[in-house]
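I would like you to help me understand the sequence and C-alpha cells below and explain how sequence relates to structure.
___
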Amino acid sequence: MRVPVAFGQYVPVDSPIHALDAKTKMGLVAAFTAGVFMVDGFPGLAVMALVVVATVAVSRVPWHIAIRGVRALSFILAFTLLAHGLRWNPATVTLVRLGPLAVDGPGLVTGVFFAARIMLLVVGTSLLTLTTTPVQLTDGLERVMRPLEVVRFPAGEVAMMLTIALRFIPTTAAEAEKIVIAQTARGARFDEGGPIRRARAFVPVLVPLFINLFRRAEDLALAMESRCYRGGRGRTRLNASVMRPADWMTLAFATAVMIAVGVAL
C-alpha cells in the first residue's frame, strides 16, 4: 500500500533536481519568484508555467503531490477572482449583472492573472521542500546566512528553527486530517450550518491538535538535548555540501532565463 505524502514533505526519488545542492535550489527558487513577479502579462505567465511543468517532470515528483498546495489555497484563489471581478453598481459594461452586483470583464481577467501567479508560486516554490531533505535544507540555509554571523546573527539556530517549522507543516496537516476523520466518525459535522457554526465545529479539532503539537515539540526538544545539540556554533558535518560546477552553471543559466523572461514579457 502506498503511503500518502503530505504537502511540503520530501519525496525520495532519483532525479537531476534532487541531485542539485540545496543552495542551488534556493537560488533557483529566488530567481523563479523574482521572474514571476516581474512578468506583467499572460505570455510571461505561460512561459513560467512551462518552466514549472518541465521542472516537475524532471524532478519526477508525482503531479498529485506537486499541486496539493494549490488545493489548500483554493479559498485564496477564489477570493482573488472575486475581489477583482465583482463590482458594486458598476458604471461600465459588465459580463453578468445581478441587481447592483456585476462581474466586470477586465477585472475578471486581472483576477485570473493574479490567481495564476499565486498557483505558479505555490507549485514552483514547493519543489524546494519536495526535492530537498530536512538535513540538506538546514545546511543550505545555514550556509546562505553565514555571512550574517559577522554581526552576531545566530545563523545555525535560525536555520534549524526554519527547517523544523517547514517540517512541521506536513505533520500538522496530517495530524489535523486524522483528527477530523476521527471526529467525523464520532458524529461531528463540519459542513452544516452557517460560517459561525462551522467555525465552532472545528473547536474539538483545534484543542487536540495543539496538544499534540506541544507534545511533539517537547519530544523533539528532549531528543535534541539527548544528542547534545547546543546550536550551530562549532558543529561539524558528516557530509559537507559543496556546490559543483554543474550547480553553478544551472544557477547562472536559470537566473539569466528568469530575468530575461521577466524583462521581455
Notes: Residues 1-154+238-265 form one domain. The chain has two domains: 1-154+238-265, 155-231. Strands lie at 86-88, 96-98, 101-103.
